[in-house]
Amino acid sequence: MSKSLRFRSVLVLLCLLLSVFAIAPTLMQGNLPQWWTNTIGPIQLGLDLQGGMHLVLGVEVDKAVESRIDTIIDQTETLLREKDIIFKRLERRPGDQLVILVYDAAEGAKVDALMADNYPSLEAETITGAGGYIEKHFRLSDKEIENIKDYAVRQALETMRNRVDQFGVSEPTLQRQSGYRILIQLPGIEDPERAIALLGKTARLEFKMVDETANIQDAVAGKLPEGTQLLYERNVNRSTGATTEKPLVVFDKTVLTGDLLSDANVRIDTRFNEPYVSIEFNAVGAKRFDQITAANVGKRMAIVLDDTIYSAPVIRERIAGGSAQISGSFTSQEATDLAIILRAGSLPAPVKIMENRTVGPSLGQDSINKGIKSILVGAVLVVLAMIIYYKFSGVVAVIALSLNLVFIAAMLAMFGATLTLPGLAGVVLTVGMAVDANVLIFERIREEIRLGRAPKLALESGYGKAFMTIIDANLTTLLAALVLFQFGTGPVRGFAVTLSIGIIASLFTAIFVSRVVFDFFLKGRDVKRLSI
Amino acid sequence: MQLIKPDINIDFVGKRKIAMIISIALILIGLASLVVKGGPNYGIDFAGGTLVQVQFAQPTDATAIKKALKGLDLGSVVVQRFGDNQNEFLIRVEQSTAELQGLSVQIQKALGQTYEKGDVDIRRVEMVGPQVGKDLRNKGLKAIFYAMLGLLAYISWRFEFRFAVGAIVALVHDVMITLGAFSLFDKEIDLPIIAAFLAIIGYSLNDTIIVYDRIRENTGKHNKESFPFIINRSINETLSRTLLTSGTTLLVVLALFVLGGGVIHNFAFAMLVGVLIGTYSSIFVASPILIFWEQKNKAKAK
User: Fold this and answer.
1) Interface of A with B in 359-398 (CB under 8 A)
2) By the number of CB atoms within 10 A of the CB, which of A123, A172, B179, B270 ranks highest?
């Protein structure tokens, strides 16, 4: 055996061994030593193959900016009163502006000084003579707005991660995407609707006092007293399970929010054998809750979650100790989920579902079976065609093709690439195109033989002449695959990955491996006629 | 075995006018279909909307399903049989909703009222909002554009600029005819179809380059012959390879088309059309373009 052939054979064998090592965890799940599966895991399946949910949620960042301005308005109002500055009113205007109306320039100057002290980042502008008042406009700088938006998305991502962790999904993916979007992938999830409800709830918990003096009929008709709003209380009929909504008028001002919670748990009410959520406030929250309940004995306080009233109990006495309960005829799953989202914290802004793709596990398995069947049938057809057309040389091409499939699987496992349904299609396509390189080489060899060259020489020049053609032809396909990878998302990316891997593997097997096989069979023999 | 005799000499170049008429006719038929149907038939990936794949345990039909959904305000609903299972259906709604209580739940509930509870199995739900649909469409078009640009640069570098132009004309030709076939057969264009288009581009180019490579080689060898003669000879010399590779690729794509299941069906259809057209174009379009180019240049020189 010549030195070069021995070296090349060893190289091919090494690649084969490495591939077997890489594929083993996929083929014999769980029956391998720990260190082995730790080095290379099984081939990851995309959501379209293993079933699961792919969600893209858009964070409504504009709402986060608005709520930031609302907070500034609340704080400023308190400050203005503390400093005894006379002002007509404070309001938020479209275009993210905070406007303070004052009566004269002297008070206006005080406002300017106060705002410059407390909120140096706000950009100020004065408009005089607007209806006899001086309008002091303040707006957030573009950079500040960008910061708020960015922070809202980061915080939303963090909160959702908490929720997913508590929900108990194995190997979830949460990723921030451009355009204030969050990508969430939950493999193998069984109750997608529950997951959406859990992830998408803003979970803004607020406590608001009920305005008992307001006329409900007027309120429903749209006539609300100043500083109040109309919300609906959710009631569940215990026997029928039907949900009804009852209108209630509450004051705009939120007396306490869920930000001050330290814990939330599900408890069972022994009277009705019904679950409720018990919440614990942190030190600050407990103190405030104590003050509020002390000041409002006999009045009703509404517990509002995302603008729906869950209950509006009458405060019978001052409540110290900082614990409260949210009841509302929950099912035990509802109560569990509510406790989870209260513990995980609220989202800084509401989210919207921009994309949802859910595949049930049975469909995923179906797709795998069908994909593998197409690969096998396609491969058998190609094998038959090659052997009928090229006889012994066809067998060599088939050996190269089989190794090609092994290498593709191995590379998928080694790179931790995700195999998707279009990815399987990519493998099928590679099977068809992989033999192309061998076809090119064999046609060249036939040409050389027709020119009267001896088999070994024909082989030599056939491989040599076809080489650049094969490289040119495959590089262009690789180029298309790479562009696809760059611009594609999800499943399409999977196609680009297997196609690229397939091209690289087929270059190696068709040019290098098949040559080694030929040389191996021809070595030391004086072959007069090449079976091609 | 040999299907193509080594000394074969078919006058492909001489038939280039007929080929051009056929190509233009195919493109026009496709365009006409696109115009009549008001643009490409985008699936929910690009148009936005909601798609629910349902499997029923009992036999049913599209009319019955539509009736079951009548109570919902869904806008236009399309119900069609899907895949090779008789009781599997796709329900497609143009609306998409950003609300957390998704349309799929409403559909599931409505179906649950008409059919027995365990009879309805929701196997797949896809909801794409209009914004995401627009983004995906832009990305897809960008992908095709950049792929072509990259290929133009690569072929100009490896061959000559006129070869690159010929290859790109062939690619546009292939993609347009495939697009037309999609419109003609009322198939939806979804994300995987963009992947198929790029695969077609890659495949068709592969074919074209192999012929070009031979032209380049033969130009050095037979510099006394005319350019059309060299091109024709090159096509004939590579004919055996072209047909064999197309044959094996068609075999696997057919396997995918027949056995791959509903989700991959349209993808396989695109590949099937693409491989056929790609093979045709590398023989009848990409190379004869070089002749047109040369004749034009000669005319200019005079």
Assistant:
1) 359-360, 362-363, 366-367, 370-371, 373-375, 377-379, 381-382, 385-386, 388-391
2) B270
